[in-house]
Amino acid sequence: MDFRGAHILSVKQFEKADVDRLFQVADSMEPYTNRVRISKALDGAILGNMFFEPSTRTRVSFGCAFNLLGGQVRETTDVKTSSISKGESLYDTARVISGYSDVIVMRHPKVGSVDEFAKASRVPVINGGDGPNEHPSQALLDLYTIKKELKANNRSIDGMRIAMVGDLKHGRTVHSLSQLLMLYDKINFTLITPKELRMPEKIVSELKAAGHDVLETEDMEAGLNDNDTVYLTRIQEERFTSKLEADIYRGRFRLNKAIYTRNCQPNTVIMHPLPRDSREDANELDNDLNQHPNLAIFRQTDNGVLVRMALFALILDVADKVDDSARDVGWYTEGRFS
Ligand code: ASP
Ligand code: CP
After folding, report:
1. Where is the Aspartate/ornithine carbamoyltransferase Asp/Orn-binding domain (predicted)?
2. Predicted confidence (pLDDT) per residue in 219-271, tens digit
3. Atom of ligand 2 at shortest distance to CA of 58?
4. Per-residue pLDDT tens over the stretch 6-53
5. Atom of ligand 1 nearest to the CA of 172
6. Is there a single domain that holds both residue 281 and residue 180?
7. Number of separate domains in the chain
8. Phi, psi of 192 (to 5 degrees)
9. Could you tell me if residue 335 is inside a domain?
10. Which residue's CA is minimally distant from atom 6 of ligand 2?
11. For residue 304, which atom of ligand 2 is closest to its CA?
12. Per-residue DSSP letters for 168-199?
C-alpha cells in the first residue's frame, strides 16, 4: 500500500511488505524514543487526537510519537467535554477538526464510526479503536513486540503458537491481531474463553480458511501448554449491558506465577494490550509476574511509540527525512530508561 496520505482504519489494509516497511521505520525511531536525538521532521504539523472513549496509552503514546517528530498535538478526551454531547454529528466534527489538523487519531465506542469520520475528513485518519471492532495500531505494536521477543528466542512469526485468553468476543485488540497474523504462515491459535465470549465466528473461519490451526477451549491450564506467546485480555465491561453481566465472567481466567510455571514453556512471552484489570475480582494478569523476564507488557507500551512514530512518518511522508532535521539531545543521561 501507499502509506502517503492514507487512512489507517483496519489491519486488512496491510500486506506483509507494508508491515515490514513499517517495522523498518519503527526500528529507525529508537534514537528518538530513547531521547538520544531530537527531530523536527514534523515541525509545524498538528495532530488532532480525538478520543471519545477512555484511553491512557493509545492517546498519550500517539501524542508523544507526534511530539517526538517535532509536531504539536491538540486533543479531546471524552464525549462530555466535546460538542458531540450537544448533538453534533461525526460528519461535522470531522470537517471541523480536519481543518485544524494534518492528521487525526480517532477513538469512539461505535463500530464503523472511524470509517464514517474518515469519509468526511480532509486529512488522514487513524483508527484508535472503534467499539469492539478493531484497534489496528495496537495490533501493529503487538506484532512488532512478538517479532522482537521471538527473535530473542531464535524463533520467527511463521509457525508460532499463540494462546489468546479472555473476552475475545468484545476485545478489539485480539480481532485486529489475529487478522494481522493471518499474513504469516501456519500460526497455531489456542483461543481460551468462556463459550459466550468466543472470538467472532467470521474471524475463526477466516483463520482456518487461511490454513492456520485454531483450537477453542474453556480449559485454560491445558490451553496454556506449549505456546510461544500468551496474550491475555480484560473482560470488556463497557461492552456489556450491565456490570452484573460482566461480573459473571470477571476473574474466570487468570494468569499468575504458579499457573504460568505449571503450564507454560520456560520462554513463553506474556502479553496484554493493557489496561489489565487489577481489581481483586478480576486480576487476569497477576502482579506476582511483574518481575518475570518474560512479561513483555511494558515492552509493548514502549514499542507503541516507535510504531506510532513510524505510522506518522510514513503517512506524512517524512520517513526518509527524520534525521535530516535532527540533533543530539543535550540533556540525555545514560540509563534514564533502565
Ligand atoms: N486498551 C485496549 C482497547 O482499548 C484493551 C482494553 O481496553 O482492554 O481496546
Ligand atoms: N492498549 C490500549 O488501547 O490502551 P488504552 O485503552 O489505555 O489506550
Report:
1. 158-314
2. 999 999 999 999 999 999 999 999 999 999 999 999 999 999 999 999 999 99
3. 8
4. 999 999 999 999 999 999 999 999 999 988 899 999 999 999 999 999
5. 9
6. yes
7. 2
8. -105, 105
9. no
10. 55
11. 1
12. TTT-HHHHHHHHHHTTSSS-EEEEE--GGGPP
